[in-house]
Amino acid sequence: MDNGASSYLRFLDGDNDAFVEIIRQYKDGLVLFINSFVNNIHVSEEAADEAFLKLYVNKPRYKSGNSFKTWLYTIGRNTALNYLKKSKRISSEPIEDYYYISDETDIESEYIKGEQNIILHQAINSLNKEYAQVLHLIYFEELTNDETAHIMGKTQRQLSDLIYRAKNSLRKELERRGFDGQI
Amino acid sequence: MDRYEKSAEFIMKRGDEMIAKRKRRRTMILRSCAVGAGAAAVLGIGLTTFALRPPKKPTPSQSVIIAETETTSAETTAAPTTAGTTAPQTVTTEQETTVTTTAISSSTRKTTTMLRSTTKASRTTTAAARTTEAAATTTAAVQTSPPTVTSLAPTTEDIEERIANIVMEMPEMMPVVQALPAVNENGERIPTFPMIIGDDRIYLKILQYDRGELDYPFDLNDDGIVDIYDVFEYEAYSFCRDQYNRAKKYPYNFDMMFPDMEVFERAAQFSGSGRNTYLLTYYMIYHNIDIPDTETIEEKAREYAGSRPFPDYVFKNCSENISKIKQSFDGNYEQYYEALNRKEEDYPEFLLTMFKKIDSGELFPDADQDGSVGYMDIYYILTFYAEKSTGYSKGLFSESQIEWIEGHCDLDGDGWVNVKECTWLMNYLFFYKKYDYVTHIEMEMEYRASKEPQNPVITIKPDT
User: Fold this and answer.
1) What's the domain range around B151?
2) Terminal-residue alpha carbon distance, chain A
3) ipTM of the complex in this document
4) Is the residue at B215 inside a domain?
5) Distance (Å, whole) CA B434 – CA B443
6) Using beta carbons and an 8 Å cutoff, which residues of B are at the interface with A?
7) Quick check: A23 and B4 CB within 8 A?
8) Domain annotation for chain A: domains and CATH numbers
9) Nearest residue of B to residue A27 by CA position?
10) Does any domain span residue B368?
11) A3-23 pLDDT per residue, tens
12) Per residue in B426-440, pLDDT tens?
């Protein structure tokens, strides 16, 4: 059982410190993942908070079929999509109600190590949303194709096609930016 | 305290507030359940006299089948008002009613009538002993709270509290409540209302009856016929209203019960509203209910009306339709239960392909064009199908909408947008996408409420 799962089980048993551990371990990654298709770090952070809030309030049952991270990212993605849809119609809470608004570069530089990787991350974020999601999950979260497919609700076949197209698109973007590193 | 701890603290604070709010809401609901118990007895949660029996696993009862008689409708219209009602503060004219209802529910809407009568009967008989799971709570209400004259006219506060609770717990009731001079989910009065389509109209009528504004909501589509569909519709409504149970609150998930498309399509040909016919049939089979004969239906309706004037209804039990569908089940009921636990691999390949196309955006049956495929799309498609198939357009769709739906919602490419599309979409949402009905319907309703009603044909005076 991975760390996230054991923390979550402790949280379900009433240990709120375990919830803090989950946030510490996964929040930045989840925010950046959501940002790959939202392209707004503040909204992404709010959406990630919504996902954690869902965990806290609903305490959904975790099944050990997938890793905790995959499960959490799946919840995060769906929550973010719902949140986005809802926030289009409902005016958001006043900004002063939020405890902390991150700067994208803060999270990015803390979470993604290495200048080259940051350039890569920025290039990825400028791609089509699906391409950005899939590349983010595979390159930065180092998830397997299976896990990525699960989070994105795709079949293996669809995912392979998507990765292929995403890589091509990223290559062009990096060339455009004058980056000569290899993907 | 680092930013993660701050973040966690913020989330936990919000979460604790939400949990506390839920607890308060639960308390309110329990309280209002008690208040509503007496009224529930009167309103008739029903089928108790003939419908409720221990849930024996289905052995189709090849019961007495009384051939229905074809009747011409339209002669009789809704019930005249009589003494004893407290009045027309919310008035829906007959003409308006007719215009509003969509063709989807032509048979669906007949349902209400009987229930009330059966309920009345249930009070005086030993029907409670024949309780099914589905009606367990309502029957309990009947038992614990004997009807009194006062329960016929609940106070305005009672009604509003109940409506507020309904909205909070059952967002699908929003369109109905919005059509009344009612309240939103925050308990605030809603000054405007969106268009009402399809079955919402039935609920509206029942609510109006509940408020003492209609004498006889038996014949919901005003075709002068009171039949088993009326009974069933009311039962579904009551179930929805009184259960306060999110897991079971959706009364029309016929797709769960009837995933077998072929069978479903066969059902559809028997009625303008195949889904209700089918749902009813399922219900009857599952609960081992015999089809009540026409005389029983009439007797119960008249019994309930008591000494009040009774409209000149034609009664029938629709046994022909129901028995045909019963036969089409061919004794294999287990499939409907299995469908409740359906997994991806259980779908036929062509449906999976279709679902994936919907996911990838290649097929996008977004009939209400709000940017996502949701419950309201099914609703729109069903309405669209009903209008096209009956040729009885209510003008709910503009030319451009019709063109869009025809162009984008024909999932199987057979040139028709019909009940097949609805069923597949239901499957897609509920099983394949594990549809979060509550979240989505709230958003759909917000969207719907934000749109200008195209045909605000129902006019109801604000409650003063």
Assistant:
1) 22-341
2) 32
3) 0.77
4) yes
5) 17
6) 3-12, 14-15, 18-19, 356, 359-360, 371-372, 436, 439-440, 443, 446-447, 450
7) yes
8) 1-111 (1.10.1740.10), 113-183 (1.10.10.10)
9) B4
10) yes
11) 788 888 888 888 888 999 999
12) 777 766 776 554 444
